[in-house]
Design a protein that fits this description.
Layout (H helix, E strand, L loop, with lengths): L2 H13 L18 H16 L2 E5 L5 E5 L12 E6 L14 E3 L33 E3 L8 H19 L8 E6 L14 H4 L3 E7 L4 E5 L2 E10 L15 H11 L15 E9 L3 E10 L2 H21 L4 E10 L3 H4 L4 H12 L5 E4 L5 H8 L5 E3 L11 E3 H19 L4
Parallel strand pairs: 3-6, 3-7, 7-14, 8-13
Antiparallel strand pairs: 1-2, 2-6, 4-5, 5-15, 8-14, 9-11, 9-12, 10-11
């Protein structure tokens, strides 16, 4: 089987399906009907490959089972493979025109539809290593969708390869394709874990070849509500309490070294996402991120302190804070079963790569699944510059991801009861 050709063909086909999610549709699952187009396509492909129990749930989570093949150890455990079909709604999604640079000649990559958004080697240090090889981008008018259609294509190709090579030992394998991951709702309609049945799972939603991610942020959201007092502006002296100005004042107090723009690696941050309202009532939404719960609580305490400082600066103002838990660092849960990471690292080495264990400065479906009880680290899928029209993915990395999945299945097949 031509893995290289199959994963490329799938990827190019999948990215042309508009699957942007919509965080303004909180009551709908999936948040957009267009995600169902790809989910139904995948449902048909899974059935054609011969998978069993192919089910598209009411909330848009597609699951299927590849049974063990008789060559695995007795009672080899069932593992899961997961990728999300939706793409980031903040960048144009519709009408993706993928460009296959084969070979990529080296140097900066110009995007014909966005000459001002050239993918520059100086800003993408890994790009130069792929000179003479195949790199895929969009034309610059949209994102590419490698996040996470690269992962979807890799899982589908790995399934096809396993079926075409029945001598490869494999235990039972469950796959899941989720909607709405980009808006934090990818696991809301995930099957109960006892129904899904896996002892461990892996998302394919990461970056360069070799990366295995075993940590995510501890994450909460915060909504600050500023309640002021509106009066006619011509007679406002000593009476008006402007909630809009108060909100802007608090934002101006945010420490410059605790913002997404100024933090990296294991540093946490406060991120004001949006502001809306009027003189009477204004709300500001934040996300709060840190790799440890202590750091998360410290940032939330800092935010509350800024709220109290703002109340003093605007007499008569009342600021309330509503916190909502999102997920904890998956590390807390992965540490309970070392096999989950050990076998992933071994599979990466089996593919001829040196694994790099990295924290994710973001979230995956695995964040919530790990917290619920299904340990789910994240494997590389190859993409770079996620959520951007400058997104790119090397075909070699996608092929390696397929190899890692096959190796992971083989490794888990040797684990007995």
């Amino acid at each position: 089987m031509d893995v290289r050709g199959r994963v490329l063909e799938r990827f190019l086909r999948y990215v042309k399906v508009d699957t942007g999610s919509d965080d303004e549709a909180p009551e709908k699952a999936p948040s957009t009907d267009r995600q169902l187009v790809l989910l139904n396509l995948l449902k048909d492909e899974l059935s054609s490959l011969g998978l069993q129990e192919v089910t598209l749930g009411v909330g848009g989570v597609l699951t299927a089972l590849l049974p063990e093949n008789g060559h695995a150890a007795p009672a080899a455990p069932l593992i899961g493979l997961i990728a999300h079909v939706d793409t980031y709604p903040g960048t144009p999604n519709a009408g993706v025109r993928p460009l296959v640079h084969d070979p990529y000649p080296g140097g900066d990559l110009a995007l014909p539809a966005a000459p001002d958004r050239t993918i520059r080697v100086s800003e993408n240090p890994g790009l130069a290593a792929y000179a003479g090889r195949t790199v895929i981008t969009s034309d610059g008018s949209t994102l590419l969708g490698a996040d996470d259609k690269a992962g979807v294509a890799e899982i589908m190709t790995a399934l096809e390869y396993l079926i075409a090579n029945p001598d490869i030992p494999r235990g039972p394998l469950k796959v899941a394709f989720t909607p709405d991951e980009e808006i934090g709702r990818g696991t809301e309609n995930f099957p109960p874990l006892e129904v899904f049945g896996a002892v461990a799972a892996y998302t394919l939603d990461g970056g360069p070849a070799g990366e295995v991610e075993n940590e995510t942020f501890c994450a909460d959201s915060a909504t600050l509500t500023f309640r002021g007092r509106d009066v006619h502006p011509g007679y406002a002296k000593g009476k008006m309490v402007n909630a809009v100005r108060a909100a802007a004042h608090l934002i101006s107090l945010l420490p410059g070294d605790r913002l997404p723009e100024t933090t990296e690696k294991r540093q946490g941050y406060l991120h004001p996402l949006g502001i809306k309202g009027d003189v009477n009532v204004t709300t500001v939404s934040f996300i709060v991120r840190d790799f440890d719960m202590e750091g998360l609580r410290s940032l939330e305490s800092l935010l509350d302190g800024l709220a109290r400082t703002t109340e003093k600066a605007f007499p008569g103002l009342v600021v309330t804070t509503e916190l909502k838990h999102s997920y904890k660092n998956m590390r807390y849960f992965l540490e309970r079963d070392p096999r989950v990471m050990d076998l992933a690292l071994a599979a990466v080495r089996d593919a001829g790569l040196e694994p790099r264990v990295e924290p994710i400065r973001g979230g995956t479906d695995g964040s919530r699944l790990s917290e619920k009880g299904l340990p789910t680290p994240n494997l590389f899928a190859g993409g770079r510059n996620f959520h951007s029209v400058q997104e790119w993915v090397p075909l070699d990395d996608m092929v390696k991801a397929v190899e890692v999945v096959v190796g992971l299945v083989r490794r888990w097949a040797a684990v007995g009861s």
